[in-house]
Automatic annotation (TrEMBL), chain A:
Annotated protein name in UniProt: Uncharacterized protein
Entries under Pfam families matching the protein: HAAS
Recorded superkingdom: Bacteria
Keyword list, A-Z: Membrane, Transmembrane, Transmembrane helix
Classification via InterPro entries: Perm_prefix_1
Transmembrane regions listed in the UniProt entry: 89-108, 120-141, 173-191, 211-231, 243-262, 286-304
The species this protein was found in: Micromonospora orduensis
From TrEMBL, chain B:
Keywords, ordered alphabetically: DNA-binding
Protein name: DNA-binding PadR family transcriptional regulator
Species, as recorded: Micromonospora parathelypteridis
Pfam families: PadR
Domain of life: Bacteria
InterPro entries: Metal_resp_DNA-bind_regulator, Tscrpt_reg_PadR_N, WH-like_DNA-bd_sf, WH_DNA-bd_sf
Length: 315, 113
């Protein structure tokens, strides 16, 4: 026997609890028979009637779920909100922390810009792992304890109305992280750059003589910028005094860099030993000019952009 | 202009609970799945087979229906009947249905148009 009805019954009963399987089978077979009879007595031929009846009964998995009173959802409303809150909380913190740590470790091992890739990959893997295990845990809880004594919501849990701020926390954190990475890079490139001389020793990218004054000075400016970002976040919006401070900090960083680049004192001349292209004075001048223009353009663009924001937010 | 989908959803919501009430009333006279389905349809309670058959089992599990196999006819059929428990539950449900109707009527008459 392998009629459509047999196949339909087998497909339905597959996921119905075993103790009632036979009874449901007998009853369902009779019901299908009744429905087919009803149609054939109206003049339809048996095969067509059978097809119609089974089509009307629909997907056997759905029917079985109704017999077994099984819910057709991964996670029910009891736990959905708490699951979603935890998900947002964990995903907003942990992948970023893991990614940052991996990046720092890779940088410490001298990978230079190559450290960013493993950091991003680690952050994404962490995110996927968190999402998977958290969801699995909640699905299991939902399956085996569908009625939970979760604490009732009270009005005391209402968060404060968000204060109006134009400077967002993610923006501030991103800026601070960028500044700290830059600060860390300056001493790091001296001891571990990706360039080595013929003896396998490290060649600093930046001119080592600059450590007598300019590089420490730049680090001080960058550290001041970190403080500035935090103050700016506390203030919550751009103001003209803040803009003035920002402009001074920008100039204090860019002007020395531009000047050093233009006068060919920024990069380590020893690099020329390994990178023959840099040994040529014309090429060095071109590179210096490119760096100078790049830094100047970024600074000017930043100042204009910030000025527009300040005008909008003080209006 | 109300969209057909929205209308269908609301009608479905409105009808959902009435299938249980209608079945409990109809099964004061014992009947088997498909015959019940036809009777309900004839009396203006169109219900899908794949909803009704599992529903009957659920009501039986809840003790609101009793069942008996009839093997005298050409194919064995399971006859359901409203139990005493089902009967007392039904009277509560019917009271509530009447209360809903009364409230709606009161609301309609109380509203200025």
């Amino acid at each position: 026997m392998n009629t459509l009805t047999d196949r339909y019954l087998a497909a339905t009963l597959r996921s119905v609890p075993a103790p009632r399987r036979d009874e449901i089978a007998t009853e369902l077979r009779a019901s299908i028979g009744d429905m087919i009879d009803d149609r054939t007595s109206g003049g339809a031929d048996v095969t067509t009637a059978e097809r119609e009846v089974l089509t009307e009964l629909g997907n056997p998995d759905l029917l079985a779920a109704r017999y077994a009173d099984r819910r057709l959802q991964l996670l029910g409303p009891t736990y959905y909100l708490i699951w979603w809150r935890l998900m947002k909380l964990l995903l907003s913190l942990i992948p970023a922390i893991v990614g940052t740590i991996v990046t720092i470790v890779e940088v410490a091992e001298g990978k230079g810009f190559g450290a960013i890739g493993p950091g991003i990959v680690a952050a994404m893997q962490t995110g996927v792992q968190i999402a998977f295990w958290l969801t699995l845990t909640f699905v299991l809880i939902d399956r085996f304890q569908p009625t939970a004594d979760l604490p009732d919501w009270t009005v005391d849990q209402l968060p404060d109305v968000p204060a109006h701020r134009d400077i967002s926390l993610p923006e501030t954190v991103a800026s601070v992280v960028m500044l700290l990475v830059t600060i860390a890079y300056l001493p790091l490139q001296h001891y571990r750059s990706w360039v080595r001389d013929t003896d396998g020793d490290n060649i600093p990218v930046l001119e080592p003589a600059l450590w007598s004054f300019w590089l420490p000075a730049l680090i001080v400016v960058l550290a001041a910028s970190v403080v500035f970002e935090i103050v700016k976040y506390r203030v919550g919006r751009w103001t003209w005094p803040l803009y003035g401070t920002k402009a001074l900090l920008n100039l204090a960083f860019s002007v020395p860099v531009v000047w050093l680049a233009l006068s060919d004192r920024l990069l380590n001349p020893a690099l020329g030993e390994r990178l023959s292209w840099l040994a040529d004075a014309d090429n060095r001048n071109t590179l210096g000019a490119t760096i100078a223009v790049g830094v100047a353009v970024i600074m000017v663009w930043d100042l204009i952009d910030t000025a527009l924001k300040t005008r909008r937010q003080t209006a | 202009m109300v969209s057909e989908d929205v209308l269908r959803t609301h009608l479905q919501e409105l009808r959902r609970g009435t299938v249980v009430v209608a079945s409990l009333v109809a099964l004061r006279r014992p009947d088997y799945g498909y015959a019940l389905l036809q009777r309900l349809t004839d009396h203006g309670f169109p219900v899908d087979a794949n909803t009704l058959y599992p529903l009957l089992r659920r009501l039986e599990d809840q003790g609101l229906l009793t069942s008996e196999w009839n093997t005298e006819e050409s194919r064995p059929r399971k006859f359901y009947r409203t139990s005493d428990e089902g009967e007392s539950m039904l009277s509560r449900l019917l009271d509530d249905l009447a209360a809903v109707q009364t409230s709606i009527t009161g609301l309609i008459q109380g509203v200025d148009r």
